[in-house]
Amino acid sequence: MTKIFNDPADFAGDMLSGFARAFPGFVQRVPGGVVRATQAAPGKVAVVVGGGSGHYPAFAGWVGPGLADAAVVGYVFSSPSTQQVVAVATAADAGAGVVLSYGNYAGDVLNFEAARAQLTDAGIPVRSVVVSDDLASAPRDERSLRRGTAGDLVVVKIAGAAAEAGYDLEGVVRVAERTNAATVSLGIAFEGPTPPGSRGPLFTVRDGRMGVGLGIHGEPGVSEEPLLGARELAGLLVGRVLAERPDGARRATVLLNGMGATKYEELFVLWNEVVPALEAEGVEIVEPEVGELITSLDMAGLSLTITWLDDELEALWGAPAQSPAYRKGPAEAAPLTPRPVPEIAERAIPEASEASRHVAKLVHAAFETAAAALAEAEPELGELDSVAGNGDHGRVMARGARAAATAAGRAVEAGAGTATTLLFAADAWSDRAGGSSGALWGAGLRAAARVLSDTDPPANAVQAACRSALDAVTAYGNARVGDKTVVDAFLPFTESLEADLAAELPLGPAWVNASAVAARAAEATASLSPRLGRARPLAARSLGHRDPGAVSFAVVVTAIAEHVA
Amino acid sequence: MTKIFNDPADFAGDMLSGFARAFPGFVQRVPGGVVRATQAAPGKVAVVVGGGSGHYPAFAGWVGPGLADAAVVGYVFSSPSTQQVVAVATAADAGAGVVLSYGNYAGDVLNFEAARAQLTDAGIPVRSVVVSDDLASAPRDERSLRRGTAGDLVVVKIAGAAAEAGYDLEGVVRVAERTNAATVSLGIAFEGPTPPGSRGPLFTVRDGRMGVGLGIHGEPGVSEEPLLGARELAGLLVGRVLAERPDGARRATVLLNGMGATKYEELFVLWNEVVPALEAEGVEIVEPEVGELITSLDMAGLSLTITWLDDELEALWGAPAQSPAYRKGPAEAAPLTPRPVPEIAERAIPEASEASRHVAKLVHAAFETAAAALAEAEPELGELDSVAGNGDHGRVMARGARAAATAAGRAVEAGAGTATTLLFAADAWSDRAGGSSGALWGAGLRAAARVLSDTDPPANAVQAACRSALDAVTAYGNARVGDKTVVDAFLPFTESLEADLAAELPLGPAWVNASAVAARAAEATASLSPRLGRARPLAARSLGHRDPGAVSFAVVVTAIAEHVA
């Protein structure tokens, strides 16, 4: 159980400050995460890792020579925001482009991909490598649906070594993708983690049982089996990871990873059984790692990872690396040259018309109302989310809306018009909320702002903004109606609004009608048959429960009806 | 909760094999522990660390260039046996003598000191450095009563660097003792560990509370206080460790250590508060460490350690070191020269008389009976021991007696006389049992053997052997009647036996009488007022409970009455 914190809401930020204070020779803080404290070679490709916090040594513990150049650090078990990724990658870029490497989770994919698009627009060449090593989360022929777990370390190590060796952007991507394809992992869970401020673990496993196929965000195993002794457990793990052995593969590196509360001595007892089990199958083990490599706070469990090596991958795996939590081979006495970090410019506030400034005030008032409504709904939303997620939807939504309201207020104070006020709110929402809902709301609000203006409000502004936001959310989330996402409420809301306005109903009553449609649609998600979306295998579990994203959408649109007319 | 093991009794051995398999570049297994896999410089002082297992990275994780030369590894939370220490130190010695460095716990002190005497007799110069940094376990003016906790790492690091730099035996001891004197620690506990095979944690702390002044073997805190936020907790820890700041001391290294289930992120949150709290008091922090340095299986808790540095200690603290779990500075690409390990000779079996061989058979039968009786009493003894100890007394006694009986049987098979049979049993008992009771029973049986013979049984052999054993146990344990130890039963037993035999009662009835006296004395330990012995502050807690050592003594002497007549 996580016991040490000030305000649980500040946990990730406090953690990151303390981490940077503990390892000043390796890292320095930047907005959104950490970058190396030391200069990399000019023209070196930058490897940027990241994800939610709670997984130390992943990801910030891997920043240093021979490994990553920077880490983006989100809230506990939440994806970092798009802005965080942009800020950290911009600071890490040394002119030769950036590889973003992260695990295959919906929120991470959304935010890192959105950041990739923004960075590319800004002229920085960026490629993504999405790690998908967890064999329990999807069958072998649907590799792209698999989650990322401890395979993250092997991919980052090999990408980092390639970048250090002078590979260009495409070259680093090529070996990193080959590494991911050659890597499979299987995890075992005994008890879930207890995030800061929670009263109990995210899941428990009955005495004498174990969960097989854990996730690293407190997701329980995909099946439950009787607890095994060390020898039999080694047999199960080795058998499952070798089932996907490529033809003729012999040499491999192997990771035996503890999730937090399953300790070193237990890992060594298991390793003592894993080695003969692998050797009996003719596997030659190359520079293995046994220890805590990617954790899930104080979760009890472990995972076994195998990466099949060819000569190139083996040389890169064996190359020296120095970071706070992972060190290999001889360290060069690197001079501690402080690495200069570019400032990130604040968004400017353009001139605005009187009319647009007036609407901006209404927008600010609407965000204040939405923030209050979401704060009230926070416990219910959290409960809904704990069925298939990690229970933080209420907290994330309340935090995002609160940040958006504050940012909108500051913009209005500074004389911003409607579009700019909405942009400030959008940035603040996704940046402070994090996670996948933060990314979706940020993307939706930004898309709405794009069809508005700071001068003359366009005709049909409201329905145009709604449709633009819906399109952005649908595209980002790759979701269709029936997937049990926010789209299940957002699409019927928009259609109702458009129909009423086309029938010349005034905006006020049209909005009220549409809100009622959204609320009914959110209720109906309890009976929807879910479709298995990309990297969302857990969504299938929430059948019979209302989708928290659809419910929170209905909460917002219902609350702000008073400001719309 | 420890979940991964085969037979819990084999946990430490399986763990050590797996550890050696994970780090073949650093360590090789020897009987009793591990020594470096690589050659040290000829004429280098050997630094040997050790203690029970369950504390990884302590102690085996610290074997490598710049740190320790070898580690002695006992059972979980039990001191290694005297024989283990002798075997490992003999393998580690490179001709310039050995420094034994270990924490101040009764069992460790007994076994390492006995080993020191044996090694010195064998011509190896050996010095001990006993680490005593835990400020909660005794007041400042009774420093020698304090337990050893995370200060172990600082002492080993500085001793290892001094040895590597060519200091001689006295020189290494001098800096190691200065380091210990300059080091204080304070620990906080949230929940005890659950050793392999146990059904629950060794202690719990109520919700919203924390134990202050933890031990590393699952001893709870010495006081319980309300749980604090990170900032206030940092204030408490810093205030308490600075209370013993030497006049004028400014520069210090600082360790923030997690005990196992209190994770990295929490430690960084706390570190973020510890740094400003120390800096506000003018402390200059030199190369600190934040992480899991010395754990207690899956115990939840942490400790803060401060070591005040002068120029010499600071240079040694900063020197490079490479080991499985602790790496600092540039690593030399050390050639992997296998280090030859000397064989340890088996004890020879001298010629024996017919009469002595006959008595040896009775001794073997008595050990078999004792082993059976202790196996039956194991649960009760474990329960008694869990009041003030870690609950392993029953297991340790049953294991020791079983090993002694088997060894005695082998000796008898090979034609050994009484004294030699007893010596085999003594060695096997202390070697397989480990811990302080193993050391005491080994020492007592060895002392008994010394007054016996393999040829003619001396007059008054039984009472002479009893008195000799009692003297050895009393001397080793530094215990007096009333301390709630085995002596409380052993002394009245011996006095009763001597008095009856002096009054010419036959041995059979005299032994039965003495056994009854021992059993009553063991019962009476429940009402004894305990004296605070050296490094045994927790004994004070068992007031109102029978001492498990006294009870197990009574079990043995009562059971073997049939073989004595």
Structure notes:
2 copies of one chain form a homodimer. With 565 residues, chain A is an alpha/beta fold. The first copy, chain A, has 2 domains: 8-195 and 204-325, 3-Layer(aba) Sandwich (Rossmann fold); 354-564, Serine Threonine Protein Phosphatase 5, Tetratricopeptide repeat (Alpha Horseshoe). Chain A has 17 helices and 15 strands. In chain A, the strands form 3 sheets. In chain A, strands 7, 8, 9, 10, 11, 12 and 13 form a 7-stranded mixed sheet that branches. In chain A, strands 1-2-4-3-5-6 form a 6-stranded mixed sheet, sandwiched between helices. A two-stranded antiparallel ribbon of chain A has the order 14-15. The longest helix of chain A is centred in the middle third of the chain and has 32 residues, at 354-385. Chain A is globular. The two termini of chain A are 48 Å apart. At the A-B interface, helix 1, helix 6 and helix 7 of A face helix 1, helix 6 and helix 7 of B.
Q: Biggest protein-protein interface?
A: A-B, 60 and 60 residues
CATH topology of the largest domain in chain A, what is it called? Rossmann fold
Radius of gyration of chain A: 24 Å
- Assembly of the depicted chains: homodimer
Please count the helical segments of chain A: 17
Sheet with most strands of chain A: 7 strands, mixed
CATH architecture label name of the largest domain in chain A: 3-Layer(aba) Sandwich
Labels describing this entry:
globular, Rossmann fold, transferase (chains A, B), Serine Threonine Protein Phosphatase 5, Tetratricopeptide repeat, 7-stranded mixed sheet, homodimer, alpha/beta
